[in-house]
């Protein structure tokens, strides 16, 4: 059971990192965010704006000692796939912690918000 859960989490991280999360905007489905009613919520909305994930953003920033403005300042490529650009910080160590934070938030959002892809469900 634990192995299956770890495989599911790895697949969710892979989906997030590849930029393939199934958002309503990606699916071209005309629906609002189920937590804040924002029209056509993109992954960027969930990652940076949605109040539902504010506590997770705050907890990760505190735990990993990131600047409080970090989440709002990340470029689109980071919010959609967790890729941290060199321009985010000249420090390799700081970029590494940013990567950890973005992947953890992205996986949390993907696990909570999206139906896994057919590839993930076929593992069951
Ligand atoms: Zn929202």
- Oligomerization: single chain
How many angstroms separate the termini?
A: 11 Å
Ranges with pLDDT <50 over ≥5 residues?
Answer: 118-124
What's the helical proportion of residues? 55-70%
Mean pLDDT score: 85
Largest sheet: none
Helix tally? 8
Number of strands: 0
Integer-rounded radius of gyration: 15 Å
Q: What ions, cofactors and ligands are bound? A: zinc ion
Order of helices and strands: HHHHHHHH
Strand content: under 5%
Secondary-structure content class? mainly alpha
What is the global morphology?
A: globular
Protein name: Reverse transcriptase zinc-binding domain-containing protein
Signal peptide: 1-20
Keywords: Signal
Organism: Prorocentrum cordatum
Structural account:
Keywords: Signal. It comes from Prorocentrum cordatum. This is Reverse transcriptase zinc-binding domain-containing protein. This protein is mostly helical and 124 residues long. Helix content is 59%, strand content 0%. It is built from eight helices and no strands. Helix 1 crosses helix 7. The relative contact order is 0.20. The C terminus is likely disordered.
Key phrases:
signal, 124 residues, 8 helices, Reverse transcriptase zinc-binding domain-containing protein, mainly alpha
Give the topology, please.
Elements (H helix, E strand, L loop, with lengths): L1 H16 L6 H4 L15 H7 L4 H10 L6 H4 L2 H6 L10 H22 L4 H4 L3
Helix pairs in contact: 1-7
The structure holds zinc ion.
The site of zinc ion has 8 residues, from loops.
Protein name: Reverse transcriptase zinc-binding domain-containing protein
Keywords: Signal
């Amino acid at each position: 059971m634990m192995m299956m859960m770890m495989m599911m989490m790895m697949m969710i991280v892979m989906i997030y990192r590849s930029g393939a999360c199934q958002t309503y905007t990606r699916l071209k489905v005309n629906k609002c965010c189920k937590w804040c009613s924002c029209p056509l919520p993109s992954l960027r909305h969930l990652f940076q704006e949605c109040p539902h994930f504010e506590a997770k953003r705050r907890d990760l920033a505190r735990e990993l000692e990131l600047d409080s403005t970090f989440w709002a300042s990340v470029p689109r490529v980071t919010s959609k796939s967790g890729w941290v650009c060199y321009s985010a910080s000249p420090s390799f160590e700081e970029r590494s912690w940013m990567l950890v934070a973005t992947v953890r938030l992205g996986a949390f959002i993907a696990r909570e918000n999206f139906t896994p892809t057919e590839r993930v469900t076929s593992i069951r």
